[in-house]
């Protein structure tokens, strides 16, 4: 699990990955709102029903992600 502090763009070769499902949750912890994304792995995952990755965003990192997505996808 990780909470994103900031983003830095790097240039590197990337490959398309296995397509999986994700869920998101919202929570308030000590007065700080968090947005959390969980990925659940592929159909042939050894341990089913267990999150593969968990990423959390506070308000500042969520705003930065939205800005990046708007810039990169023109949305």
Describe the overall structure.
The structure is a single chain. The chain is an alpha+beta fold. 20% of the residues lie in helices and 32% in strands. It is built from one helix and four strands; from the N terminus they run E-E-E-E-H.
Largest sheet: 4 strands, mixed
Helicity, in percent?
10-25%
Overall shape: it is globular
Mean pLDDT: 91
Query: Cα-atom Rg, whole angstroms?
Result: 14 Å
Q: How would you describe this structure in keywords?
A:
four-stranded mixed beta sheet; 75 residues; alpha+beta; globular; 4 strands; 32% strand; Methionyl-tRNA formyltransferase
In short:
It comes from Paenibacillus roseopurpureus. This protein has 1 helix and 4 strands.
Tell me the layout of helices and strands.
Layout: E1 2-4, E2 22-29, E3 32-39, E4 53-57, H1 59-73
Organism: Paenibacillus roseopurpureus
Protein name: Methionyl-tRNA formyltransferase
């Amino acid at each position: 699990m990780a909470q994103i502090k900031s983003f830095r763009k790097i240039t590197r070769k990337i490959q398309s990955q296995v397509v999986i499902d994700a869920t998101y949750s919202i929570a308030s912890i000590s007065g700080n709102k968090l947005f959390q994304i969980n990925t659940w792995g592929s159909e042939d995952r050894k341990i089913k029903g267990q999150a593969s990755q968990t990423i959390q965003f506070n308000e500042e990192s969520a705003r930065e992600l939205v800005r990046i997505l708007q810039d990169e996808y023109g949305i």
